[in-house]
Amino acid sequence: METKESILEFMRETAYNPKLADELIEVFKIPKTEKNAFYNLLDEMEAEGLIFKTKKSRYGVPEKMNLVVGKLQGNQRGYGFVLPDEDDVPDVHISAENMSGAMNNDRVVAKILKKDDVQKSGEGQIIKILERANKKIVGVYENSEHFGFLVPDDRRISQDVFIPKAEANKAQTGQKVVAEIIKWPEARRNPEGRIVEILGYKDEPGIDILSVIRKHGLPEEFPEEVEMAAENIPDEVAEKDYEGRRDLRDKNIVTIDGDDAKDLDDAVSIERLPKVGYRLGVHIADVSHYVRENDVIDKEAQNRGTSVYLIDRVIPMLPKKLSNGVCSLNPKVDRLTLSVVMDIDNKGKVINYEIFKSVIRTKERMTYKDVTAILKGKDEELKERYGYLYDDFKLMEELCNILRNKRMERGSIDFDMQECKIILDDRGKPIDIRPFDREISNMIIEEFMLVTNETVAEHMYWTNLPFVYRIHEDPDIEKLQAFNEFISNFGYHIKGINEIHPKALQDIVEKVEGKKEEAIINNLMLRSLKKAKYSPECTGHFGLAAKYYTHFTSPIRRYPDLTIHRIISEYLAGTITEKREKKLTGFVKYASKLSSETEVTAQEAEREVDDIKKAEYMKDRIGEVYTGIISSVTPFGLFVELENTIEGLIHVSNLVDDYYYYDEKHHSFIGETTRRIFKLGDQVKIRVAKVNIIEGSIDFVLDE
After folding, report:
1. What is the DSSP letter of 374?
2. Which runs of consecutive H residues, i.e. helices, occur in 620-676?
3. How far apart are CA 170 and CA 470, in angstroms?
4. Which of 335, 373, 382, 338 lies closest to 356, judged by CA?
5. DSSP letters for 65-116
6. How far apart are CA 95 and CA 111, in angstroms?
7. Distance, CA of 92 to CA of 80 (rounded, Å)
8. Which tens digit of pLDDT belongs to each residue from 80-139?
9. b or e along 384-423 (b: 16 or more beta carbons within 10 Å of the residue's beta carbon)?
10. How far is CA 261 from CA 252, 312, 392, 443, 469, in A?
């Protein structure tokens, strides 16, 4: 029986012309007994968008048929863009009349109608919807005499959902609801739905975050069979589980986390090695010991992909019995771990290492705040309380600085992006938003996890076993050239742009540090780079200037880490057969794709909740005046970021002293008569004009 790869290889040949299924059966000499299986394989490949079946039932690959397969990104004005599956294929613009009933995030096939050689993009038409993304939609219900309709929270869904009276489920105007789609949209017809859940009135406490959870399909509760399976796992390490593990319970091992963290999956230890340097131990919860491949807990973890952190709550990847209990490296109790112990010289080079199964008992549950206070000598009481660990913390600080300097020297790009902490009261109302300081203790854990991830990735790469790597591809040269053109206005220039090395970008980061344009240039640089993702191929991590990289250190909250823990455990035990290796090859490909997708969903949900709470915070400050920096310039206006990281839009229609035109090349607006210029990085005084909490948007006007 032929594989998908061999069929695709054949169809991609220059001389190939689309063929009927029976013609392909002749080409591949498929025996009669396997014909049905071959037809099913073609159907499966078509459903995945790997091949396309014409109206005359002929099969070919999309790229040779002037077609693009990808995900549709909708726009509130009705048009959209197809973001192709293939990285080197440009986005395709789809006008409102060519959407063919497709909705935001649907997986589609688009026919190219017109190519734009200058923009390297094109105009297209949706000709097939492979997979519907919006089976349920969250929004605000509006009632009328004969029917109702739902206004979607997702602005990228441009059409309201028609709700027949019989399907309204007693929903009232102004309530947040979840509607299940019962008829998909067509060319000139809105989608139709039925109300399946009423969340509550849109202004009620907690409804905002609940709406985001429902919108992204995040599971609040674990299925009963998953909870039952978790309950059957002992609270303590069983006697038999100590076998085959190195006993590290006498070592000074500690966790260092945020104040409110409960899922503690990494712990660290350190010793000074005379003349050589340091022995760093990084000990990671051995979740794979408890969550077995393909059991009910594992399948649920696969679907979730990651834990999601939404300000006042966590939607965990694993049941709390595991994430906060027997897997969490809580203080002064025995825990099973996978340890990586590295000997690191005084220049930050790993000169020797071991990866092994272990049992530990952490001495303390430290917080970032306390470790920073101890190291800075700000709290004598704390210093005295943890006196027996003081020398260890000082050694950690030393090694952190060495590792960081080495990373910077090789060109790793270290964005010191300003993050914020949002403080809510007991009703979920934001009462304070302030910048989050990145202290030395945070950097210690960052550097230790980075060097561990690199060490594990390189070790497993040379085993030639299937594995999940964390990759970050080289940036698109055209985006970099546009970025280079912009920063030249500030007197900066990227060296060697045609064969870009991350060090060239790190040089820019260092040059802008402390300057007023720092945040703007760092943000714009970040937008010019590709997004990191998971992959079965080890192609390197551009941003870290690392040849080998993976995610090994958070198996409680990230599925890729759990996946590779299993592979490492089997490798250490020497139990990976040829048959098992073949199975793992398929699984790591699947896990990489799924994990990349769930990561994006989690990031979007987290960002939306932050935006909603920032908007709610500013609602009580309408009319107040602030000073901010122009952080982004778009054709429709200027985004201004305030000191507390809150961002709002000055719409171009509110630039009322002149007619302003958009200068894309220089990221600015220029007044036609006054020649007044608003550009990225400029400081402006604004007044808060309007807030939309549902959309998480804030409108500013200039205060002059």
Report:
1. H
2. none
3. 48
4. 338
5. TTEEEEEEEE-TTS-EEEEESSTTSPPEEE-GGG-TT--TT-EEEEEEEEEE
6. 12
7. 8
8. 999 888 767 888 999 989 999 999 999 999 999 887 655 556 889 999 999 998 999 999
9. eebeebeebbebbbbbbebbbebbbeebbbbeeebebebe
10. 21, 12, 22, 17, 26
**DSSP element (H, E) containing 606:** helix 578-619
As a whole-number percent, the residues of the chain with pLDDT over 70 amount to 98
pLDDT tens for 462-485 read 999 999 999 999 998 888 888 888
Judge whether residue 626 has pLDDT over 70.
Answer: yes
How do 246-247 and 350-361 pair as beta strands? parallel
228 is written with which tokens?
Answer: 């039952």
Q: What pLDDT does residue 1 have? A: 55
Sign of the four-CA dihedral 592, 594, 595, 600: positive
pLDDT digits (tens, 9 = 90+) for 281-306: 999 999 999 999 999 999 999 999 99
302 torsion bin: left (phi>0), alpha (psi -120 to 50), beta (else) = alpha
Whether 522 contacts 417, CB under 8 Å: yes
Q: What is the pLDDT of residues 174-203, one digit of tens each?
A: 999 999 999 999 877 899 999 999 999 988
Q: Residue 52: phi, psi to the nearest 5? A: -130, 140
**Contact between residue 633 and residue 668 where contact means Cβ atoms under 8 Å apart:** yes
